User: Fold this.
Amino acid sequence: MASVEFKNIVKRFKENTVLNGVNVNIKDKEFLVIVGPSGCGKSTLLRMLAGLETVTDGDILIDGERVNEYHPSKRNIAMVFQDYALYPHMTVAENMSFSLKLKKTPPEEIEARVKEAAATLQITQYLARKPQALSGGQRQRVAIGRAIVRKPKVFLFDEPLSNLDAKLREEMRVEIAKLHQRLNATILYVTHDQVEAMTLADRIVIMYNGKVQQEGTPMEVYSKPENLFVAGFIGSPTMNFLRGKASVKAGKAEFTSKDIKIALPASLIDIKALKDGQEIVVGVRPDDISVDVPAKDSLTENIEGKIDVSELLGHRENLYIYIGDTRVLANTDAIGREPGSKVKLRFNYANMHVFDKETEKRISK
Amino acid sequence: MIDPKKTYAMTPEELSEKYESTKESLDQLRGMLMPFLKSQYEKNRKALERKEKIKKLLIHLVIICCCFICIYPLLRIFSISLRPGDKLFSTDLSLIPDGATFSAYASLLKNTNFLRWLWNSLVITVATSFIGVSLASTAAYAFSRFRFPGKKIGMILLLSSQMIPAGMLILPLFLMIMKMNLMNSYLGMIIAYSVSSLPFSIWILKGYYDTIPRSLEEAALVDGTSEVEAFWRIILPLSTPALSIAFLFNFTTAWNEYLVARVVLFSSQQYTWTLGLFELQGQYLTQWGMFAAGSMLVTIPVLIVFLYSSKWLISGLTLGSVKG
Amino acid sequence: MELLKSLYEVGWFLLLIIAGVAALEGYFYVHFKFYDKKWFFPALLLIVPAACWGIFGNMLGGHTVALWLYFFLAEGLIALFFRHIVRGQHTVPYMLIAPAFIGLALLLVYPFVFEFYLSFHDLKLTTIMAWKETGQIPFVWFKQYVNVFTTSPLNDVSIWMLLWRTFLWTFTNVFFHVLGGFALALLLNNNIKGKGIYRTLLVIPWAMPQVVAVLAMRGEFHAENGFVNILLSRLAEWWPALANMGIGPVQWLSNYPLTTCTIINVWLGIPFMMVVILGGLQSISKSYYDAADIDGATYFQKLRYITLPLVKPVAMPAITLGTIWTFNNINVIYLVTGQAGGTEKADILVSAMYKAAFTYNRYSYSAAFAIVIFILLFSISVFYLHGLDAAKED
Assistant:
């Protein structure tokens, strides 16, 4: 198994800069997920590692060896494509053994490896079929099988689940997680779905506009988003953002907007670093807004609001609440609150995030 | 549902009774109205159906007439090929003539070089198609998959080369072949034919390659093939339908060609079948039956191949023409 | 035995072609791959000119020093080009298109240029042997072009007459092709039984080898034994009134050759149009017609406002192509009138060009004639495409 290093990677298509100085390390046996909206350059980065795109500037290292100019076949990687890319004129078994045949592996070993992979993925009964005769989920398994028979240094997954329907996607997600445990392999996985990223990854890299926005374990990026983009991208439903100004008076800080005033305690933010009148954004996740609860040190003062829409989700409900003209979303236990009724909200300080509006960087602790 | 807490105007028994009586009177009304409505409906439907039937009948009639016009010359040829030698020039219009014989076929095979002509055509055509398709398949791949300077100009050149009237090139080709001392030879013919269908073949094949997802080759590259191997082992086997269309197109073009053959080949031994038939038909008074027999022999296989592949061929043609 | 010989001959030729392509690819490969090596220039300049000189010397007028110098210069330029401009980029695509484009250059572009060269010289029956031996032909400036407009390409017909016939021929043919094709396509597009069989039968004129189709039709126009005249004479017998009106057997081939050719070509060309237009009709969603029915459109309104505009994008390219094909159609006219002593009253520009070269052996004259036709066709096309673009912008 192997480690991978991207050093200062730059990719330009003519005038267009797709990647702008990307540094990412993948440790041995690590499951690294790169996540970001479409067009952020995540797929380009993966395809560069596969050798399917040229590198404009920077170095790619596999096990410390620079592979920039290596042909894809010489990099010892395996890739699972978004559309599976199974060869339509070959059977499942032929698809899986193609790379081994090219490497002139002895037939007995090919057969053994294909059988083993097929057993792992429960596709043994389809080995003689052509890909057209398989369902989407089965094709996905074959595509993964084709990758694992090769025993490569690194597995690359390029949005492998995006062509499946919701239920199958969940199943395959679990499947891939199990596979990682069993294979104990280095995996680079690219997706635009933050749920996949959160559930699968050892570590997540969030990319936007050709740059790495944040790198860390799923918990880190969830609980301490480094900037507004990450805060908005990770977590579902999306974090509420309140825009306003900081006012610092006599060692006490306060967030003020037209509709809302919230005290910012020292546990949340370094008050000395805050300027009076600085434009800031306060972020709070829907789960961290409590409705009609008694006062507690960890919560804010009551904020008055009026329910606009309530969506019942079963044992939870989504409440869209107007505070003056500002609308926030709260996710609470379902007790059947009626639209139009007045409520009192408290935000949870422990999971509140403060960002500078100008730099969009996190300024809370 | 009956809510026991509420009070109703009628008891359930009264309700069901009322329901029954209303239903009865409604049924009576329907019984009175239905026959009338049905007859009206039937009348309208019949009128419509009759109109539709007449319309369809007319359409069938017109189409059958057209079909008849389309195939009549072929039937006539067939009928003439069966005529006994002394009745060749009767004004008889029946399909199977009196005293039908296969003597024209026999004498065609015995007294002329017909088989030799077919063989010549076959050799020239197969060689031409082979060269044409191999050149087109690789060039089309480059145009479909790679970005390189001059790609656009190349495509435009390819299309505009179709603007050069084919008839215009016969003379220079003839002179070139003469200069190379290849007159009256297969090689001269193959050289003259080999690129004539190339632009069209490249166009068709490029269109087909474009529909094959690029990720297939990328998968092959990752699996360990070179670019050329990915083309050879993945794309070519997948493109057999388009390759057969291109082959067929090259084949029919060369197989039916007459004008170049007419000036390059001059000995009866080397004739292609088109030249041979033209000669037989020219001697109208003496060889009419043999001409008819020969026509039948070359037409039937061509028709079978064409009709068998027409779906592909037509889709290929319309694809090319719509895009062009 | 002879069959084997012919196979041997062709097999040998194919091998030669494969070897040629391989040599060519090898040549390019060396240029792409080793452009930055030290030995690149010396090795290539030593080997390539010598090899070309050895192989092609005989074909290009003997092994002279001048020829070697040409090769040397050419290779030098090519090597410089590869070293400083191409620099080993895009190796694969260029190597893939090289054989096809060299083939096209040799057998399509070169003949075209050669035609141009011919048109300024005087190659005819009396000078062709000298040209074949030595490659020399007299240079005559624009004399051939003057001849094109002042003398007859055939026995006795002016270029203006031919031009008129060509336009008449092209217009009537395309008109009937489109009309007939459209009508048949409309009929076939109904929901009727046996559609597949009808379609198959209707494309037979197109599917038949053209030589057979035209020659067979030519037989049907024979004055005594052709079906057309038999039918006409029987009609005249049944209805004397028709005979009184002058309808009866006609000497088609000698008196009305252009009409005959037109009828034959219309018969040949309708199926192609029908197939293309039928494809267009079938791609029109039925919901448009349902919507029009609800709006209360009549059959002809639907035809005018739905069918025609929606079929147009499919039909226009086919009509454009069909026009060019008809304009350039030598086959039908030559097959009908090309026999020794055949009439020249049906000839259009292209068939006259063909006959001028191969019946009258006036090669250079025919070349100049071809250039004139090409310029004519080219300017019409440019004009037409320009008009089409303007129409699109409206």
Remarks:
- Residues 318-324 of chain B have pLDDT under 50 and may be disordered.
- The two ends of chain B are 69 Å apart (CA to CA).
